[in-house]
Amino acid sequence: MDIGNVQNVRRVRNLRNVHFIRQRKIYKIRKNPYIELTNNEFRKKYRFSNAECLQIVNEIRDFLPRAVNNRGKPISPSLQLLIALRYLARGQVQDDNGDLHGVSQPTVSRCLSQICRALASLKNNYIKFPLTNEELASKKADFRRKFNMPSIIGAIDCTHIRIKKVEGDYAQLYINRKGFYSINVQVICDANCHILHVIARWRGSAHDSRIWNESLIKEQFENGSINGILLGYSGYACTPYMLTPILNPQNDVERQYNYTHIRARNTIERLFGQIKQRFRCLLRGMTISLENAKVAIQWRRTHVLGVAAATPILRGGCTTKIGG
């Protein structure tokens, strides 16, 4: 027998005589913000009121993993939602977020992933592009009443959401024209800043017009399934279903058209500003993994404002004054 093997056998025998002491698990004291905070403090920290959060929990409860028993002190869905909202609202470091709610950093990461995926699974129930004649007529009437522009059903634009550095062979494709890693998100909204359609999967280097040209919704406009016109900036091609500004207006009529176009398309710019101020991690950048970032972006761009158009939970959307 090899001498090295003999020594290994002796080491294994010695290990049998060693008694390992299992480290005792220490549970932090968990707080209950639903009881401890006032309504104003609760809304400031979590962007929604106490009652709104409880109603959201009722919607997503079936999409969250269920604890079989009380072993390990499982976290309630209501607390999981607050842990996720705290990160989304402030972009807070996960370790500090855990200390605030009495959980560990890995628990915060799991709660964030589970809550965002649960909310994103509901988006098709609320985010629907208008297809019927009645729905399209309502959207057109809003733009006509507010901006005196007929046949307009929505405004389109893209916004970059900063993410942490991406590893791998395709990392450079996530670097946008401004020089940072991002996901380019396309959004269509109506005259009331309610989201009608969202695409949140393109790398930062993708141009806005490419995302539009390769989207399924463009095909619906081309084949006549959608009877209406969108407002876009000059980076998009001007087509029968997409109006862009006139680059060099020559008379008062063209200048008036540009003025009205800018006012109407400003709805999508206001939407981006409102939602990034409400959920600061969209403004400051996502520090979570790329896959979780895509899910989180998908939820925040759809559920928060889109549900506001159809559900009493989020009625008012970003028009509510929020501090922090």
Automatic annotation (TrEMBL):
Main location: cytoplasm
Family: Belongs to the HARBI1 family.
GO CC aspect terms: cytoplasm; nucleus
Localisation: Cytoplasm; Nucleus
Name of the protein this chain belongs to: Putative nuclease HARBI1
Record-annotated DDE Tnp4 domain positions: 156-292
Gene Ontology MF, one: metal ion binding
Pfam families: DDE_Tnp_4 (PF13359)
Cofactor: a divalent metal cation
InterPro entries, per database record: HARBI1-like, HARBI1_animal, HARBI1_dom
Function: Transposase-derived protein that may have nuclease activity. Does not have transposase activity.
Keywords from the UniProt entry: Cytoplasm, Hydrolase, Metal-binding, Nuclease, Nucleus
